[in-house]
Amino acid sequence: MASLTNDSAIRIRSGLLLALASATSFGLSGPLARGLMNAGWSAAAVVAARVLLAGVVLLPLALPHIRGNWKLLRTNANLVAAYGLIAVAGTQLAYFNAVAHMEVGAALLIEYTAPIAVVGWLWVRHRQQPGAATIAGAVLGITGLLLVLDVASGLSADAIGIAWALAAMVGAAAYFVLSAQGGDLPGTVLACGGLLIGGLILVLAGALGIVGLHATTHRVVFADFTTPWWIPILLIGVVTAAIAYVTGIAATRRLGSRLASFVALTEVLAALIFAWALLGESPRPIQLLGGTSILIGVVAVRLGEPATAALGDPETPADTPTKDRTRAEG
Q1: Rounded Cα gap, residues 78 and 63, in angstroms
Q2: pLDDT at 228
Q3: Per-residue pLDDT at 49
Q4: Which domain holds residue 86?
Q5: 3-state secondary structure labels for all residues of 49-109
Q6: Residues 149/281, Cβ–Cβ less than 8 Å
Q7: In b/e form, how buried is each residue of 44-67, taking b as 16+ CB within 10 angstroms?
Q8: Quick check: 200 and 56 in contact, CB under 8 A?
Q9: pLDDT at position 316, please?
Q10: What is the mean pLDDT of residues 21-37?
Q11: Using one digit for the tens of pLDDT, what is the confidence trace for 38-52?
């Protein structure tokens, strides 16, 4: 019993560290993408380059897990396709298009209501009614986001921007739910397959004229320096996609989709720090207060997370075949 308790505690701690690493990596993507788009790249081109590069980087890690067991990939083909189309390509493209029509803060706020959508999905679909601590954590987390994004100063957005941001919110919620599924499919395989499929879908859409694919070789300008275009492309592909998605999937399989989605709220704090360093955008005191509220909300959700939903099979590593977690985690 003591061994099981220790294994569970280790699993939770490692899951939290992985979730924070994923959120921090994702937080870097916005400032890098903004620099590339300012240099003449289209949103679809940035997303396509990001996910295709990440998929290629992960391919050597994913292949050993399915070599000689291609039936496993065929069995989960629908999951991988949905992950690539909705959680990868759809979410990123929707967010960048939202930013093109509305303020960045407003777009982020709408997208990051995804944790509430996850809680609602688990409640309606799987009858996992949230407890008082989870509800309180949700309120604190969303309140913190309102403060971090400083929406009290006023927002202006058109209907198209709001629609794109809502689409990004649905995609973000799908990311957490889909990451927790496919219990017998290694996380690197899900991430690699989803990234490659998502990127190829965007390239095909660009070839058909559905989305614009524009790229340049102009130097990318940040707050205090300029850099060749390929440096932010490498960072946005390897760090903010390959590393971010794999650590995010591993974290979700350790923590459950509900808790992982709330820990991912720290991406907003990471994005603020990177935006300050790369774009010269300094957070205001009200935003720091909001960050504190987010962290308290994450702790509250942790206290309210049911043990069975959070732990799954405590002795199974996240990147090896796992038992059925779909019932408890989405």
Answers
A1: 19
A2: 97
A3: 94
A4: 2-329
A5: HHHHHHHHHHHHHHHHHHCCCHHHHHHCHHHHHHHHHHHHHHHHHHHHHHHHHECHHHHHH
A6: no
A7: bbbbbbbbbbbbbbbeebbeebbe
A8: no
A9: 34
A10: 89
A11: 899 998 999 999 999
Q: Two tokens at 323?
A: 């038992």
Round to whole Å and give the CA distance between 37 and 51: 16
Q: Number of structural domains, the chain? A: 1
E strand residue ranges, the chain: 220-221, 226-227
Q: Is the confidence at residue 323, as pLDDT, over 70? A: no
Alpha-carbon distance values, 168 to 50, 171, 173, 266, 272 (Å)? 17, 5, 9, 17, 19
Share of the chain above pLDDT 70, in %: 81
Give pTM, 2 decimals: 0.74
Which tokens in the block code for residue 77? 């083909």
> How far apart, in whole angstroms, are the C-alpha atoms of residue 172 and residue 162?
15
What is the rounded CA–CA span in Å between residue 13 and residue 151? 33
